Amino acid sequence: MGQPHASAAIEYDVVVLGAGPVGENVADRTRAAGLSTAIVESELVGGECSYWACMPSKALLRPVIARADARRVPGLSQAVQGPLDADAVLAHRDTYTSHWKDDGQIDWLESIGVRLYRGQGRLDGPRRVTVTTPEGERHTLTAKHAVVVSTGSRAVLPEVPGLSGAHAWTSREATSAKAVPGRLAVVGGGVVGTEMATAWQALGAQVTVLVRGTGLLPRMEPFAGELVADALREAGAEVRTGVSVTRVARTGDTVTLTLDDDTQLQADEVLFATGRAPRTDDLGLASVGLTPGGWLDVDDSCRVLGSDWLYGVGDVNHRALLTHQGKYQARIAGAAIAARASGTPILETDPWGAHAATADHAAVPQVVFTDPEVAAVGLTAAAAEQAGHRIRTVDVDLASVAGAGLYADGYRGHARIVVDLDKQTLLGATFVGPGTSELLQAATIAVTAEVPIERLWHAVPAYPTISEVWLRLLEGCRG
What we know:
By secondary structure, the protein is an alpha/beta fold. It has three domains: 5-46 and 102-154 and 278-359, FAD/NAD(P)-binding domain, CATH 3.50.50.60; 155-274, 3-Layer(bba) Sandwich (FAD/NAD(P)-binding domain); 372-478, FAD/NAD-linked reductase, C-terminal dimerisation domain (Enolase-like, domain 1, 2-Layer Sandwich). The protein is 30% helix and 24% strand. The protein contains 15 helices and 22 strands. The strands form five sheets. Strands 1, 2, 3, 4, 5, 6, 7 and 17 form an eight-stranded mixed β-sheet that branches. Helix 3 packs across helix 7 (191-202). FAD binds at residues 58, 121, 151-153, 315. Residues 12-324 form the FAD/NAD(P)-binding domain. Keywords: FAD, Flavoprotein, NAD, Nucleotide-binding. InterPro entries: Class-I_Pyr_Nuc-Dis_Oxidored, FAD/NAD-bd_sf, FAD/NAD-binding_dom, FAD/NAD-linked_Rdtase_dimer_sf, Pyr_nuc-diS_OxRdtase, Pyr_nucl-diS_OxRdtase_dimer.
């Protein structure tokens, strides 16, 4: 095979590697600042979130949660007792992924004046990127001000004997599957594992969740994982903790998992939701003195440490593997790149400054779209204590709130805030229960803005809503 045809180098102010939502947002900000910008994508413009993560997973989960909520409303519950129409749910999911076509995303890039290069982009020394297209052409791009790596992360399969030949699902296959499996084994109890267990169980699969640790959602408050596990079991799933998979074998349509207690489990499909790694292994990082396949260490403006031109934004910097945090970082990085390009001598990099992604440290919000929903922001009690804070936790049974009882008959849920005793502000909040995702932004504002507890007393929750839990929590603060 001959060498790819190379074109003359083309200079841009900014070159972005990766056209997912994070890269798109960086490009949008730099173009808005008047900087010429090129973006490089080897797969679909729109990235993991649009086609294999956020959008398809939530499209699968929305009818599941809506039916569960309806079944808890007297007078409505009898009307929604039948099974979900799995074909209709999958078709709706396909619509939300644009049937895995990115025409609309390309049109948007063109509308803001960003040049798209399709192909594999690699660094080739400082401020220099080569792009090899699917047709074998090679483009050389140079960046006057910045190269931004926003290539995201990928699912990692563990080293388990037999797994390579078992055609196991990762998050991509779990969100894009064309049919409901009869039996699904889910290995891992984090966000992907619990959400996909919730979705496929409701769509008709017999689900077994296998967790190496003591419970689900281990990075959140313990009661979150407990309530989600209870709900999965009540829905018909099996949740087994303290077990590991030691071998996997596929024979025809059946996958056999051997566990460390010498028992075996058979399934039609197995999903391994056991971790992620950065997509940095084939980006030419060695050409600029960085380790291929590693996470990128960045400062709060998302500039790679030791560099004055290379940025790592989104999953690749391992600060918070969440689309909304990556887009937040993109806004910060875009502003920082524009400021440096214009010669601004001193950037606003103090905490909560215009060029500092401070929220990555103190106020990361996250929703797990299981039934019940889990919504959390900031630090858990354990994380706050580990960080050296003097804290107090206040817990409220959400069933005690009038609005919760109206929302769902037999409402079950729990809320906790973590109070900084020295500052008398909130360090974190966690809500578990139907509809609790809509409580999260208020909590995020309280944590981010460090609103004093005494000031929160004057933020009166409307009655009767689930938000009245704030009154109960604040009453607990006063003791």
